[in-house]
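YM 10:42: RsmB/NOP family class I SAM-dependent RNA methyltransferase sequence, as discussed on the call
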Amino acid sequence: MTDRAPSRRGPQPPAAAPQSDAPGLPARRLAATVIDEVLRARVALDETLDRLIPPSGLDAADAGLARAIAVTAFRRLGTIRQALDERLDRGSPRHSGLLEPILTAAAAQILFLDVPDHAAVDLAIRHLHEDPRSARYAALGNALLRRVVRERDAILAEAEADPFRDTPDWLAESWRAAYGEEAATAIALSHREEPPLDITAKADPALWAERLGGILLPTGSIRLRERQAIATLPGFADGAWWVQDAAAALPVRLISPAPGERVADLCAAPGGKTAQIAAAGASVTALDRSAPRLRRLKANLQRLGLAAEVVTADAASWQAEPFDAVLLDAPCSATGTIRRHPDVAWTKTEEDRDRLAALQAKLLDAAAGLTKPGGRLVYCTCSLEPQEGEAQIEAFLARHPQFRRAGASAAEIGGLGAAIDAKGDIRTLPQHLPGGTPRLSGWAGFYASRLIRL
Ligand SMILES: C[S@@+](CC[C@H](N)C(=O)[O-])C[C@H]1O[C@@H](n2cnc3c(N)ncnc32)[C@H](O)[C@@H]1O
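YM 10:58: structure's back
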């Protein structure tokens, strides 16, 4: 090698080892790549997995392992990062390629998954050797991961004693301010558990609960007892039901669409709420600005045998004859879905929340103009942040005196009065709806408010 100044991106990497064909390594390679992409590009974990798994050629078992490693890494990222950082005497090296995601994936396996320690460590070291920028850190990685194995009990005990270890500070502070210390702690702890799987039946939920061996929730959703391959369950191919978090099914209950009514669903894709409105017999216009997401909506409605007028447009500027009811399920930081999408905690920022809150205000103003006198406007977000919920509606009512709030009653949501706040809006928290075991408990954090145009 000739003498050259180090590149601006750091020292020149040594030659990487050729790719090994060790069993189990392809799943780890994919998991580390996914973790790296999600953190660097701040793209959704599910989308990244769906994009990268098919071309990887992994079989179902390896794809499942890659998914489990990546999801667990994000669910426990605070614990994993602290465990690694505290054991790196000189801090995390810069310009180290895939070092961080490879170590994160390995620590997720060692600390939280039922994987032999030697497989987690050895495959991570092979992977480090393959990556030109991290190969030089293979010995460091090896020593570090072996320490994590040895000190696992202490790491887990420390994490257990610190409910907010897997929650970024800005979110912990936001939840403390909005809900108090006890509720904020319960929110943070609920995110450590896998969420339940809920479905909405097109009709006759009691019958479908029985057929699927699920639990009929008071709100009418069905909670499945086991994790199962959805597409193989009775009723899926026939379009009898769709997957929808029980809390996400509440906003349409506030609309209570009647047969023959015209209802606009302004941020509709992928169509869970459109399907509820159509199943109630209303004539629904499903609008979204994302054409790819609307393709998913159309496919979902087709499977369910439900109809909607589908419009690709920006809801902020779309014009139409005013509707009997308008649903605005606005784009938001989605912090109410962290239990189902743990990457959200690490990819969304306060700046995102504020930018989205400004967009929500604009969309609400447009939705107001699409609601006819006497009509209902239901606004909802899957966010735990008051800026995207309670504060948004307070500001809207101040800007639009021709609207008044029509609070929800417990009877409208299966008697669950605890999910209705003092003003009559729906505010669900992830720790509501206890179900015996963590897997059968909780729902997404949602906010929904019903307004009437005078
Ligand atoms: C929370 S998701 C909607 C989920 C959907 N209502 C359901 O229940 O399946 C928000 C949606 O808003 C759409 N969106 C964001 N900005 C928009 C805009 N300016 N106009 C229309 N749709 C928009 C996004 O493409 C996304 O599909």
